[in-house]
Amino acid sequence: MTDLPATSATPSLAPTPETAHSDTHAHTDTDTDTDTDTHTHTDTRTHTLLTVDRLVTADIDWAPAWIEIRSGRIAARGEGRPPRDPDEHVPATVVPGFVDIHSHGALGADFGTAATRDIHRIIDFHAARGTTRIVASVATAPLETLHRAIATLRPLVEDGTLAGIHLEGPYLSPARRGAHNPALLRTPDLAEVKRLIAIGGGTVRMLTIAPELPGAEPVIRWLVANGVTVALGHSDADATTTRSAIGWGATVVTHLFNGMKPLHHREPGLAGVALVDDRVTVELILDGHHVSTETAEIVRRTAPGRLALVSDAMSATGLGDGDYDIAGSAVRVTGGVAWLADGSSLAGSTATLADGFRGLLAAGGARPAPAAPPAAPSAGPPSPGSTDLTAAIAASSATPARALGLDPADLTVGSPADLVHLHGTDVARVMRRGAWLTSS
Predict the structure, then answer these.
(1) Which of 44, 278, 298, 438 has the lowest tally of Cβ within 10 angstroms?
(2) How far, in Å, CA of 332 to CA of 324, rounded?
């Protein structure tokens, strides 16, 4: 959930160490079969060797390359020739599947109220567009509604269908509420929070809170001590309070610049502190409406390795314009942009993470990726005015996964075999847990 832009415009499976690099298949990462978090779309009997024109992650850029998949996970990978004849060749570029840690829904369904059948529809919609792992964000609602939503979502996290649950509210600032109904906002109460987390049984991965509210400190400290990531957002906090909250253990900022004080040169507020504190991962919505291109470029340059793209997709995503309800508020979508019906605030987005991925590349003036790296790359670091593909991949996969302690999203050995086959910067095909979801 977002408001009017403030700017102008589980434990992871450790990968096997890599071996020495070479221009042939001698550069490989290998492993034996690992236990898999089985997904409903995956045939766990699959043992596949793929060759690709180019494999790019946050850490590598190999052309050509190969990937061996067993039981839905990466068993080995390498640059150059594969160790045997491949089962399939994938042309052009392959990158890790996108990881969206802040998404509310799609196709008229909302994670906070949807039945299991509609939750699967949301997941499949986003997966077909490259999001192979998604955290279900639940917006502000009465406590009883939150309890029901968590209970419905919990088994889908436990079986690996969802990557977790994110509670965005109800402990938010009325002054920076965005689309959240002010009548449903609450003061942080540790007993209430303990009950919410208990119902989740370890599946609530993140909770967004305004740290300036009375009672926020003990709630934040307890959540961190119990393995829940704390995000700061929908907050009117000043810089001093923000620094204190990070000291209490908060490590994520919810949709940077939206739902917080504008950045000011004498009062940086939550946004300013988040940009310079290396302990914090910052979410950013790049749908062409929540932040300007220049603002996105500021974040890219000041928070490398800490930027996590999110969709903040609401129930209208994948549908046309019309009237909707979210977080207890009436929302109108016009021209693909979601606003509160009274026009006072943005109300989430109708974008997918693939849109944000392309948006980050465009923000830096980058061109679509070629099928292979240039034969004679220029010396020195990338131009500050261009976003390289590895940075965009990190922001859409590795960084958000790391922020919530999920399985690595870097295609290292042992990580999920979640792949996106790109045509230029567009999603051509998607593999989730070792199975292609869409045809070429």
Answers:
(1) 278
(2) 6
